[in-house]
């Protein structure tokens, strides 16, 4: 080792002493200084166990060397003792402090001890505190080794330890004698710890010095180099002569930071006001840290805190957006997180979550705040603060900034007086183009008023990483100074991450092909990548054009999207003749144009495809290129010739305001009636959207004044915008969302249709999200009727008072335009509108919410709304109704819906049939798999995803689904009677038919579906009629299900009581061991006979159980082979469930499982001995064994006392957190009854009519319900009938009978009212459980509901209100069961085929339900007769695809040619319409459904009966639809037979 040179140091004074010394390689001068100035007999060096192995021995050597150099008198007596502490925050404790003190005492350290604290902040704080109290205080020296300690913790004299109550709660002020900041230590500091310290460095610069901040902005790579690249020159940096520029920069940056802290401490040692400035980012940062530590480090939390606090300053008007973005960029550049939503943060913190309430609560108890008075440092610009201390900020502002969602409140100011003048952010399109032009150009260009947003920032970072240009700020950031690199570019060190910035990804793709192999570091290539959505957005046509031109571009993941890898080639971007398809995005064209002058040959670009999209954007590019000195020639037929050359940067370029953004304030004026002036957008604008005011707002009724450079809009009075019947927005596609929300409230004076149709916007399907479909979906949530057009959207205007902000808020899909347009609508929505993911506006207008409030005078509040659920996948045959159910379940669960097929088509921009034709089925399945796999990453939560029927045909997809269902979310198999499916599919010839026979396909796929899913749902038969609520319960696994155990020796005599004993149950268990054939063990034939009779008398699933003697049954344990034979027989007979006892032979069980097909296994264990304890080892063993075998696990024990049931529940609840299979767990005996009440899946039940109970303690369904009610698990609900007149209604009889039979605590009452408003207090009551709705309220009730079902929407009326409740609140949903009553009355009575014709008589509301029911039954032709023909036309328009044929009379020629087989009559029996016998001429007979029920037998029914037709009386239909309602409300099968009995009795009492 060479002789160490005398280092050059800097000194900084603190508290008026030059005690801070900075430099490199300082150990020796430190010892010289301390030994001469603080002579002691004992020096103690305390450090941690990470640092000691690296540095300690050298330091001890240095100490010895110094002693010998100095030739001190007492050299022999001097001692240096060392003590090591475990690294980490947990060492900052009272215990460790005591250990150190004991150590010191044991070493006889006295008052003349001097202590060195060598380490990070933990060592500094801890050891400082030891020094402060040891012997009432001994001198100590700080030797900070972490960056944080160098710039922060070592300075100021604060020392402390933590306690379980909080950090730094016990401590004192104790100033170190010296602070030796030796940057050499940083070499070994882990990178994340360095980054952590940078947060404090950036903080200090932000509050104290713009020039330091600029040093940081420009010094990113140098500073990192100084720290991380190891030098091989010894003692490099110790002297000025050996110090590299990077080292000098690092030193100056650290010194500035340390100096500022030292200055503040000097002026305010005991922290009164000034010192509070250092707390910038810490008020919020500490609150985050309290939750996310130790996963997130202090600096990382402070980094996020600084962003939030800067946003608060911006919101309050102290700070501009430029400063916020600069802060954000610097933090990111040094690798710090800026938001809690970042992937990096989420990966680190896992499931920990910062709710706003929790953060506020923590801030409240923070010692620096005083309860509701939160103190936050307000930046006023980079380098300055609003006050020289922290500023008091109100809770509502903090809450607003912290909240992920925002609620827009309706506009309240005085309209006439409001005139707003505001500038909007710079154009994103122009800013992005200007950045590229200036970067590629020669010279310096001052960009005035560029946009500061995520998008442009991403672009700047990328250009910097490509070493293509230098950026600096002037004028408080109003000006961006770009020094162009003249087109010379280099492969960046790491990949270019572009987030969701579409423009940057397109423009940069061509730019990256300009890197030539000579300038590139060998073999390296440029990778462009983005977030999950970016990875789905198309870039194919551009890449293809460049590939054809010879550029080497490769897709890294999915064909056609980012990430892509660009390899520099010898002759870079070749140029010459190029072709490009321009019908999807004009950005592809711009991308090539911008880089074209730098190609090796002059470029001639021909645009191909049917239509060039968004020509104005291409014109913009051309105009801007001209401003930078390159003139493009446009030839006939969309051909552009671009000369070679270099851009000459104009010294100044003024960026226009963004006209797409401008549509929002103008639209606020339009919708609220205020006046808004934008001073920098006018008729001469480069951007197409500038025409929005004139082309859209004026015709909608606004007053528009436009000059060359300004636009003023005054809206009409609230509620008087007019619809635009047809508007083509091709030249301003981005503005369609703004137009759509205005259309939602646009009405005509007359009662005519208020429809706005916007076309020409097909490209909006491939933006940040599928904007057309999202717009439709979100508008529907407001109660606005909207639908998709092939290249646009159609919207029915609605009265403002009927608008309803969705309970769960608008979901923005990370799309700024969705967020901003719905905030416009929110200005008038009566109860306010929640906008989720409010941050997404940052893409183009980061300060939108601030401007919305401060400039547009709107009111908002913060809402903390996010809760997440795993996505759920629906699989099943085509035609089973996956899509409809998927949508409804998504609605009910507040999740989003996504159809894999549609997604496939959107990503590849090609219809599936075309894809298959071109590439074949195998390629389709492989692609489908790929897309599904990536979806499960990108859409892992909050989605319901439906898959095409054949997804299970491809083994890798099967494996994927299986894995998903076992480890993540649920995979739900939707099953429907295959014959219904076939009929349904045949109805619609336009769907591509499967080449194989459907039955065949079904049989092949059945086991596949079974293998992939963990839940299956039979849409019709399994649990009665399946409703969305039932589905949700099944999916959430909260649905209670019951099975009845049949204990008869022979079930045949009992078949007649089957309808009664199965009331409320979900399955029937056949206890085979209890059967007896003439007193003997029954034969296989006998059992098959019993199964067949059971099937005939009930459609419920069958559980086949042979219970052995040792398990509490009657079957001999010795007959094992016979036992398995029986079970096999059951599987062959199609029993849905088979009970398998787990103690039987493992081999035989295994064989049985192999052949089980789609039968589910209930793996059971019964402990008869009563020795199994629910908290013991045995039950866990049995449980595991059952889990290995069964689809359902059944464990039965015995209860000796009540608490055995509690232990059982604890066991089940614990298991349920870990496994997904359903569990049946009960205790036998009377003491175990509570466990039967609480069990959820397949609780075995008995019925009073059974000969004996299958097990001791068994209860009936009614008893269980009563039990649940009494223990508060089934609250009483009130149900009503709303209508007028209703005195004679049968509904109370239907429902109250059902409630009583099933033991439900509910009650149903009449509520007669003329005026629909009267129901309001009833439906708002928390006890309200639901209602039937009849005339005259079926339509007028709709505005009172939160949502209406697909069926009600199609029919246009609601007859049932359902209440759903979940975490996000309570929702009232409108449903229609009228059609279901008709549907189920017809379905069992007639076979329907493609020839079946139906007739509906009447044109009112009921006839709509009739038409809908016939369509749902699969009819392709529906005759419609009504006296007024106009009604017929209206219905034909309402159901354009239903094959409705209008009849002029009931003897119409059509009827004679092709008579109907189903007649639905919806006219009153009193209308004396003539029924001709021709109606019944179809040779095969038919079904009449009569909706009138007074009298029971109408003329139509009588005449039909004469002709042999089956008649369904009105009263039967009424009962049928009532049963549907009952089932929707209770989720239980209605006790039909008794309800019918009671209704007919009542009917006869009234009418005869
Ligand atoms: N007193 C104050 O004014 C003040 C101010 C800010 C923070 N703090 C305190 O500082 C502590 C955090 O300090 P920290 O971030 O330095 O944590 P730390 O002391 O735990 O150090 C971080 C990690 O880096 C390691 N390390 C440190 N220097 C190293 C080096 N040169 N080479 C290799 N490894 C090295 C450490 O062993 C540790 O694992 C907290 O307890 C905080 O409360 C105090
Ligand atoms: Zn800090």
Main features:
1552 residues; alpha/beta; nine-stranded parallel β-sheet; 19% strand; binds zinc ion
Task: Describe the structure in brief.
This protein has 1552 residues and is an alpha/beta fold.
Can you give a write-up of this model?
- The longest helix has 23 residues, at 245-267.
- The chain is an alpha/beta fold and 1552 residues long.
- Helix 17 (454-465) runs parallel beside helix 18.
- The chain has 53 helices and 62 strands.
- The protein has a nine-stranded parallel beta sheet. It has a seven-stranded mixed beta sheet with strand order 1-2-9-6-5-3-4, sandwiched between helices. It has a six-stranded mixed beta sheet with strand order 52-51-53-55-56-54.
- Residues 988-992 have low confidence and may be disordered.
- Helix 36 (1058-1061) links the parallel strand 42 (1042-1046) and strand 43.
- The protein is globular and about 125 Å long.
- It binds nicotinamide-adenine-dinucleotide and zinc ion.
- Nicotinamide-adenine-dinucleotide is lined by residues 48, 50-51, 87-89, 92, 119-123, 125, 145-146, 148-149, 152-153, 156, 158, 167-168, 185, 188-189, 193, 196, 298.
């Amino acid at each position: 080792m060479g002789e160490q040179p005398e280092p050059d140091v800097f000194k900084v004074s603190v508290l008026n002493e030059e005690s801070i010394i900075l430099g490199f390689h300082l150990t020796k001068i430190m010892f010289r200084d301390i030994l001469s100035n603080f002579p002691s007999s004992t020096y103690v060096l305390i450090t941690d166990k990470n640092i000691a192995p690296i540095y300690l021995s050298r330091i001890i050597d240095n100490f010895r060397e110094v002693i010998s150099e100095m030739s001190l008198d007492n050299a022999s007596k001097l001692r240096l003792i060392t003590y090591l502490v475990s690294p980490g925050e947990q060492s900052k404790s009272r215990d460790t402090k005591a250990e150190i003190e004991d150590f010191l005492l044991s070493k006889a350290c006295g008052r003349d001890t001097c202590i060195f604290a060598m380490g990070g902040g933990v060592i500094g704080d801890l050891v400082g505190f030891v020094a402060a109290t040891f012997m009432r205080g001994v001198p100590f020296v700080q030797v900070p080794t972490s960056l944080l300690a160098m710039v922060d913790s070592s300075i100021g004299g604060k020392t402390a330890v933590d306690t379980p109550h909080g950090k730094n709660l016990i401590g004192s002020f104790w100033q170190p004698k010296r602070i030796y900041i030796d940057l050499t230590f940083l070499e070994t500091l882990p990178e994340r710890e360095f980054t952590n310290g940078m947060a404090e460095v950036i903080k200090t610069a932000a509050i104290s010095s713009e020039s330091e901040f600029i040093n940081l902005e420009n010094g990113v790579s140098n500073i990192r180099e100084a720290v991380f690249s190891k030098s091989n020159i010894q003692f490099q940096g110790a002297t000025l002569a050996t110090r590299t520029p990077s080292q000098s920069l690092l030193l100056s940056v650290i010194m500035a930071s340390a100096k500022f802290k030292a200055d503040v401490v000097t002026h305010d040692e005991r922290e009164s006001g000034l010192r509070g400035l250092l707390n910038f980012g810490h008020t919020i940062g500490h609150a985050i840290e309290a939750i996310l530590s130790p996963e997130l480090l202090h600096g990382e939390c402070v980094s996020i805190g600084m962003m939030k606090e800067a946003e608060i300053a911006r919101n309050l008007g102290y700070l501009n957006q430029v400063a916020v973005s600069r802060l954000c960029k610097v933090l990111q550049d040094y690798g710090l997180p800026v938001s809690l939503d970042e992937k990096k943060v989420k990966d680190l913190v896992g499931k920990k979550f910062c709710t706003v309430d929790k953060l506020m609560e923590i801030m409240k108890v923070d010692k620096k705040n005083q309860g509701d008075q939160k103190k936050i440092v307000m930046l006023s610009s980079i380098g300055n603060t609003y006050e020289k201390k922290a500023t008091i900020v109100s809770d509502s502002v903090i809450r607003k900034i912290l909240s992920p969602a925002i609620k827009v409140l309706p506009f309240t100011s005085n309209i006439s007086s409001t005139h707003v003048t505001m500038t909007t952010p710079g154009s994103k399109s122009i800013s992005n183009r200007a950045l590229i032009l200036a970067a590629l150009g020669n010279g310096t260009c001052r960009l005035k008023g560029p946009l500061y947003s995520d998008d442009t920032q991403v672009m700047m970072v990328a250009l910097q990483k490509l070493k293509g240009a230098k950026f600096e700020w002037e004028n408080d950031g109003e000006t961006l100074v770009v020094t162009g690199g003249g087109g010379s570019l280099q492969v960046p060190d790491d990949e270019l991450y572009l987030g969701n910035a579409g423009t940057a990804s397109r423009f940069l793709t061509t730019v990256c092909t300009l890197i030539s192999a000579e300038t590139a570091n060998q073999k390296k290539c440029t990778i462009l990548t983005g977030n999950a959505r970016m990875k789905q957005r198309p870039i194919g046509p551009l890449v293809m054009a460049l590939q054809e031109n010879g550029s080497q571009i490769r897709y890294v993941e999915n064909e056609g999207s980012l990430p892509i890898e660009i390899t520099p080639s010898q002759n870079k971007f070749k140029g010459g003749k190029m072709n490009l398809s321009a019908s999807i995005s004009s950005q592809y064209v711009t991308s090539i144009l911008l880089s074209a002058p730098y190609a090796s040959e002059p470029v001639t670009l021909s645009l191909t495809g049917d239509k060039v999209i968004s020509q104005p954007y291409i014109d913009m590019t051309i105009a801007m290129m001209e401003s930078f000195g390159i003139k493009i020639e446009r030839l006939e037929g969309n051909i552009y010739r671009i000369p070679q050359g270099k851009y000459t940067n104009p010294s100044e370029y003024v960026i226009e305001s963004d006209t797409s953004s401008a549509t929002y304030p103008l639209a606020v004026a339009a919708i609220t009636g205020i006046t808004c002036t934008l001073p920098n957008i006018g008729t001469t604008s480069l951007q197409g959207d500038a025409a929005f005011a004139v082309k859209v707002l004026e015709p909608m009724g606004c007053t528009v004044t436009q000059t060359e450079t300004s636009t003023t809009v005054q809206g009409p009075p609230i509620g008087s915008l007019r619809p635009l019947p047809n508007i083509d927005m091709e030249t301003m596609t981005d503005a369609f969302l703004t137009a759509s929300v205005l259309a939602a409230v646009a009405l005509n004076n007359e009662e005519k249709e208020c429809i706005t149709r916007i076309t020409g916007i097909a490209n909006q399907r491939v933006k940040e999200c599928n904007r057309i479909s999202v717009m439709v979906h979100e508008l529907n949530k407001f109660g606005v009727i909207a639908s998709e057009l092939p290249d646009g959207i159609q919207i029915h205007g609605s009265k403002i008072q009927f608008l309803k902000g969705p309970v769960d808020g608008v979901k923005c899909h990370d799309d700024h335009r969705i967020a901003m347009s719905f905030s416009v609508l929110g200005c008038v929505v009566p109860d306010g509108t929640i906008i989720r993911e409010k941050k997404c506006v940052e893409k183009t207008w980061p300060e939108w919410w601030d401007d919305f409030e401060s400039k547009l005078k709107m009111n908002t509040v913060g809402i903390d709304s996010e809760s997440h659920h795993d996505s759920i996948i629906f699989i099943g045959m085509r035609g089973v109704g996956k899509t409809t159910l998927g949508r409804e379940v998504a609605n009910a669960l507040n999740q989003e819906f996504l159809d894999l097929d549609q997604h496939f088509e959107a990503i590849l921009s090609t219809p599936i049939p075309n894809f298959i034709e071109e590439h074949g089925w195998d390629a389709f399945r492989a692609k489908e798999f790929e897309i599904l796999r990536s979806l499960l990453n990108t859409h892992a939560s909050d989605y319901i995803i439906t898959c095409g029927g054949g997804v299970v045909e491809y083994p890798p997809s099967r494996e994927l689904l299986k894995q998903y269902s076992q480890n993540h979310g649920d995979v739900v198999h939707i099953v429907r009677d295959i014959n219904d499916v076939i009929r349904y599919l045949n109805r619609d010839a336009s769907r591509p038919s499967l080449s194989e026979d459907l039955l065949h396909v079904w049989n092949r796929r059945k086991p596949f579906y079974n293998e992939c899913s963990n839940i299956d749902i039979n849409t019709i038969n399994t649990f009665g009629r399946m409703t969305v609520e039932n589905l949700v319960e099944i999916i959430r696994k909260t649905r209670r299900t019951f099975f009845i155990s049949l204990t008869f020796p022979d079930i045949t005599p009992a078949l007649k009581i089957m309808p009664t004993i199965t009331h409320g149950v979900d399955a029937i268990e056949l206890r085979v061991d209890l059967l007896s054939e003439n007193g003997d063990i029954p034969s296989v034939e006998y059992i098959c006979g019993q199964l067949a009779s059971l099937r005939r008398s009930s459609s419920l699933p069958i559980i086949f159980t042979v219970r052995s003697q040792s398990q509490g049954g009657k079957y001999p344990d010795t007959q094992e082979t016979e036992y398995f034979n029986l079970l096999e027989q059951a599987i062959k007979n199609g029993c849905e469930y088979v009970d398998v006892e787990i103690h039987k032979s493992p081999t035989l069980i295994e064989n049985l499982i192999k052949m089980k097909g789609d039968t589910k296994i209930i793996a059971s264990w019964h402990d008869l001995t009563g020795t199994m304890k629910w908290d013991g080892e045995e039950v866990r063993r049995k449980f595991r064994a059952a889990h290995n075998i069964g689809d359902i696990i059944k464990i039965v024990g015995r209860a000796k006392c009540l608490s055995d049931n509690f232990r059982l529940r604890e066991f089940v609840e614990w298991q349920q957190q870990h496994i997904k299979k359903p569990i049946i767990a009960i205790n036998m005996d009377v003491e175990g009854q509570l466990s039967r009440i609480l069990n959820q899946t397949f609780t075995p039940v008995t019925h009073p009519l059974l000969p004996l109970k299958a097990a001791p303690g068994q209860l009936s369904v009614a008893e269980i319900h009563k039990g649940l009610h009494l223990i508060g698990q089934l609250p009483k609900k009130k149900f009503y009938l709303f209508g007028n007149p209703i005195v004679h209604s049968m509904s109370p009889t239907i429902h109250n009978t059902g409630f009583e039979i099933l033991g439900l605590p509910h009650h149903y009452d009449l509520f007669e009212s003329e005026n629909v408003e009267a129901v309001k207090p009833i439906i708002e009551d928390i006890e309200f459980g639901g209602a039937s709705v009849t005339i005259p309220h079926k339509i007028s009730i709709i505005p009172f509901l939160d949502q209406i079902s697909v069926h009600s929407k199609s029919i246009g009326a609601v007859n049932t209100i359902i209440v759903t409740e979940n975490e996000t609140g309570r929702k009232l949903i409108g449903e229609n069961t009228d059609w279901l009553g008709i549907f189920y009355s017809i379905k069992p009575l007639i076979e329907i085929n493609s020839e079946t014709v139906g007739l509906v008589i009447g044109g009112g509301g009921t006839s709509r339900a009739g038409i809908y029911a016939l369509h749902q039954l699969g009819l392709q032709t529906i005759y419609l007769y009504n006296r007024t023909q106009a009604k017929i036309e209206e219905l034909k328009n309402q159901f354009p695809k239903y094959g409705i044929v209008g009849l002029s009379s009931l003897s119409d020629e059509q009827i004679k040619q092709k008579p109907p087989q189903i007649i639905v009559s919806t006219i009153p029996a009193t209308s004396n319409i003539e029924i001709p016998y021709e109606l019944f001429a179809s040779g095969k007979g038919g079904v009449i459904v009569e909706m009138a029920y007074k009298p029971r037998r109408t003329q139509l029914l009588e005449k039909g009966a004469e002709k042999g037709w089956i008649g369904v009386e009105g009263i039967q239909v009424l009962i049928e639809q009532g049963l549907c309602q009952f089932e929707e409300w209770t989720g239980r099968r209605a006790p039909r037979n008794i309800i019918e009995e009671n209704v007919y009795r009542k009917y006869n009492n009234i009418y005869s």
